[in-house]
Amino acid sequence: MKFDRLDRMISNSIDRTINDGRFRIQSVAQASPNGRRKLVPESVIEGICVFGRPTVDFGIELGVRKSYRESNDFRSISVGRDATASIDVKYFPDGLPKQGDRFQLLDKPDEPVFTIGEVRPDGKSRFVISLHETEISR
What we know:
Blueprint lengths: L1 H16 L4 E7 L10 E14 L2 E8 L10 E9 L1 E6 L13 E4 L7 E9 L4 E10 L3
């Protein structure tokens, strides 16, 4: 019980000190018979998050080994940026967001609107969502 309270205190401190601004997540309804998904206007959640775009190197094995003693040759032929957001669970009393929901940073209008790709709990009182760019909000 004491650790739950400590987790809440730490998560609130993270939101106060490292926050990157406010976010909005809008749910997307299941596909209709014609296959199109629609935004659900009454299911909008807003809060504070920690947003990041760390650089990710994708190593690919190149070349052939000349002997069994040599190691593989891994080179980064592609460098990308993987957008993620860390959010406190207190904003989601009815359950975590789902894959395909829309994510938008309200304080950064130059950032695009994202689609949620994966939701991973961090084992404490926060969870991390991976984001994929969908459109540019201008």
